[in-house]
């Protein structure tokens, strides 16, 4: 009977001794043994199984998934507190590398996290748990590289008692995970308006690699605002009074728009001012158009163009009772507008073509335009319709009109327009004595003929 008990005892010693001799490590967190309760049991239980991302915690020891070969994964799973081992064939297009099925083919090299190398034991390239330095461990024929889980969490691999161990940690305030290491973030506090109170700013506080909270400047009535800014990497708030001449609008101290005339008053030369910016009403070069500046209800500056019916003078539209309109001058169709003895506007008659003339008259101190059409016995010459009295040839090129007119004693007998002979040649008419004369002219290089004139290509 004693021999039977000794045999059973020896069998149990050998059995548990073999299990204890396998490659297992204690589960650690931040270098300390974890004693908290787990979903599938506790470390104090005699037997339990906890699922991990790349294996299981089997009664206090880690069993990492491994590769049988390039296509078969040996996976460890938990089933009702009991560890089960199973063989899984990787899907088409994936290979087994570092205890997982990853993208690739059997002819490709494993990625840098799981490249298989020969050897035994555990070797750590960065010498331990150094979260701010990316490293890797060589464990037997497997290599594990530190890796990021998202943006702010790191899985750090290290050696402990000759075994491969890992811990997952948050990188902490001001850090983020990049390329298998926790790196310092440059920003901890950002103020969008750089503490410029004339702008409405948004200030953001960062922590743990995340935007924790944003603060927007707000108005405290019309004369003050609550302003947020960055000081020593943290958000600070202050109640500030807007400077003189400004008021608070949508979280910004903006200037009050001031103008010397009333709104859009075209008869008065005015100016507007907003802070350091100011504009004054002015006339355009035609002396008929006014550019008027004014303040809006939102205390911004706007402008509008206005047509002055009489004329524009010194940044305002003129009134009827301060100007005088006269006709005559160089030609019968000319008109002038005076302010006292100062000539404001001069309009001169001109020929539109050989049959039409543009003339100007006065109408209640306003210069009016009219178009005179010449009769059959008239021709437009010297800016007006004139009676044909003799045989002649008239070249209208001086009026920028490409025409030559031939007459007898009382009517027009011929009208000749410049015309294109070809793409590069134009036939130009002129007068010789009382006859028309045509001459072909070559267009300059880079020009071609269109509608009887040489134009740039």
A few lines on this structure:
This protein is mainly beta and 457 residues long. It contains 1 helix and 52 strands.
Question: Which features does this protein show?
Answer:
single chain, 457 residues, 5 domains, three-stranded antiparallel beta sheet, 52 strands, 4% helix, elongated
Care to describe what's here?
There is one protein chain. The protein folds into five domains: 22-181, no CATH class; 189-255, no CATH class; 258-316, no CATH class; 319-385, no CATH class; 388-457, no CATH class. The protein contains one helix and 52 strands. The N and C termini lie far apart (120 Å). The strands form 20 sheets. A three-stranded antiparallel β-sheet has the order 5-6-7, with no helix packed on it. It has a three-stranded antiparallel β-sheet with strand order 8-9-10, with no helix packed on it. It has 457 residues and is mainly β.
Shape: elongated
Rg: 48 Å
The share of residues in helices is: under 10%
By helix and strand content, what is the structural category? mainly beta
Biggest beta sheet summary = 3 strands, antiparallel
In the predicted model, the low-confidence regions spanning at least 5 consecutive residues are 1-45, 105-120
Our count of domains comes out at 5
Question: How many individual β-strands?
Answer: 52
Q: β content, as a range? A: over 45%
